[in-house]
Amino acid sequence: MPDERPPRYIDGVRSAIAAEMEADPDVVLIGVDVGEGGGVFGATRGLHERFGAERVIDTPIAEAGVLGAAVGAAMAGLRPVAEIMYMDFVSVCLDPIVNQAAKLRYMTGGGARIPLVFRTQTGGGRSSGAQHSQSLEGMLAHVPGLKVFLPSDPRDVHDLLRAAIRDDGPVVFVENRRLYNRRPADGPWEPLPPGRARVVRPGDDVTVIAWGRMVEEVARACDEQLTDVGVELIDLRTLVPLDLETLERSVRRTGRALVVHEATADFGPGAEIATRLSERLLYEIEGPIRRLGAVAAPTPYSPPLEALALPGPEAIAAAVRGLLED
Amino acid sequence: MSTDDHERLLGDLRTMVRIRAFEERVSRHFREGLIPGFVHVSIGQEAIAAGVCGALRDDDYITTTHRGHGHCLAKGLDADGMMAELFGRATGTCGGKGGSMHIADPSIGILGANGIVAAGLPIAVGAALAARRRGTDAVAVAFAGEGTVHSGPFHEALTLAVLWEAPVIFVIENNRFAEFTDSEAMWRGDPLVDRARGYGLHHSERIDGNDVEVVRATIEPLVAAARAGAGPALVEAMTYRVHGHYEGDAVPYRDEAEFERWRERDPIARATAALEAAGHGDAVAAIQADADAEIDAAVERGLAAPYPTAETLLEDVHA
């Protein structure tokens, strides 16, 4: 019997790639185990059979070479979706991302076109150890020329990935593996373009800004521990482009804001967002805009230690209550 | 030599002389402070650029290095735009945003000089993969120095090129120095051509990179083979870096006797001698005069051109 439940987050990944490959013969998928193996998480299962080995390209474990080749293929007319199996592995292939893809359009005065998606995933909290758990989106958003998308919703992952593939510039697309089995909530769905944040639940007391898995962690904190507080939860969706307008509108109304991310708090994206909002709203807010992220330590392996390292509902609820006391 | 051979050699000499004229002016104007930043010139290595790019079409791809002026000129980029780019002007190839190490024009297959050693090799492999995937018979050439071959992306690029049977030719210009270091001092194990064979390339050969006829004769069949689906090949072209790593490098590490020996093998002098002996002295003189006039005019126009306006600062960051 066919599964009639709404598609999971991971199904959204697969259906987005399939739809774009169907629409445009120049879209190719390339990476370690993306083809016959269907991806280590199963995200690309079936695509190899459907589109063939010429378009769903298995590679050796040679990330720097593969991403460099993806940059060249993009400049020569293809529209590659290149997979980096774990976000931690960007460290072995930063040059094609940071020095090549991000800069070539600018350095050539607009002469080079780099329609290229770097698909990767992150997700701490499952004892994957310090080299398979990092959220490095702040590092990539720091480099001018890269866009950075981080979907939290099973429907949004499809919309945002299709937009990423259609973008004529390089996009880092960050999935969260702990969301892969999520199915969407009931209710209507309004697709939004990249660069537009989504108000997930409205509220008047505090604005909480999150992305990726932290969106559901904040929702859980609200449902379980903050039922007496009017939290406005905003899913940022894309760090670059950054939708400051939606954030500003909300914070101007609530007067209080917290940014929650899985990335390390120190020098993290929350600092940038808090600063940008403070610069605009300093005399209209009730207190400092605060951040909550992972502690400044490599991600520990042992489950109780890792639970302490990452933001969870208790820490989020405590941070929101702290804001209300400012 | 047949008449065709003479015509081809005259054409390649013209390319070499234009490159030399360009590089000599770059060197001079850098010393005069007219070119900002830093520059690397390819004086003495012109035969490789001319012989290789002479065998390519407009729709073929090249990637090059920090020492890439010659390859770009030989692939068809105009000297005016390049010189203006080096002066940082709005009329430069990249609107003044790239500079010497980042000149590129994908519309004629120049996928970029590159400031990162070895970065161009995987890019060329990807372009070759795209050409095949899109059903064309275009090929890609990755120019790199011998200092590149120890790096990870070199190994990864050759591995991928062989796996994908990519129509790419790796042209390694062995100019004796990796920055300030004697390349032989950094070498153990098999010679490069043997290493390359180990990856499964269909052809790998060391040639005299200061003889443009040898370069041409080596590259043309490899390009034809790549177009026909033979897959990747590697050529190690032996040459000598006549100037320092960058302009201003006093080259205290250079062996003067070796330098003099290589000066006697200057690729332009050799081609000139062959053509003059065949009775083409007038044509050779005209090539020199044309090149001087062309590059002097490029300098003049470049220096007269405006700098980019402030409005362009944030243009082309994103698509």
Fold and architecture overview:
The complex is a heterodimer of chains A (326) and B (319). Chain A has helices at residues 9-23, 47-51, 63-75, 94-107, 137-141, 156-166, 214-225, 244-254, 269-281, 303-309, 313-325; strands spanning 27-31, 56-58, 79-84, 116-122, 147-149, 170-176, 198-201, 206-210, 231-235, 238-240, 257-264, 290-294. By secondary structure, chain A is an alpha/beta fold. Helix content of chain A is 37%, strand content 19%. In chain A, helix 7 (214-225) crosses helix 11 (313-325). Chain A is globular. In chain A, the strands form 2 sheets. Chain A has a 7-stranded mixed β-sheet with strand order 2-1-3-4-6-5-10, sandwiched between helices. In chain A, strands 7-9-8-11-12 form a 5-stranded mixed β-sheet, sandwiched between helices. The mean pLDDT of chain A is 97. Chain A folds into 2 domains: 9-179, 3-Layer(aba) Sandwich (Rossmann fold); 198-325, Rossmann fold (3-Layer(aba) Sandwich). Chain A is built from 11 helices and 12 strands. In chain A, helix 9 (269-281) links the parallel strand 11 (257-264) and strand 12. Chain B has a 5-stranded parallel β-sheet with strand order 1-2-3-7-6, with helices on both faces. Chain B has a two-stranded antiparallel sheet with strand order 4-5. The longest helix of chain B has 29 residues, at 3-31. Chain B has one domain (3-301): Rossmann fold (3-Layer(aba) Sandwich). Helix content of chain B is 45%, strand content 10%. With 319 residues, chain B is an alpha/beta fold. The interface between A and B is large, with 48 and 48 residues.
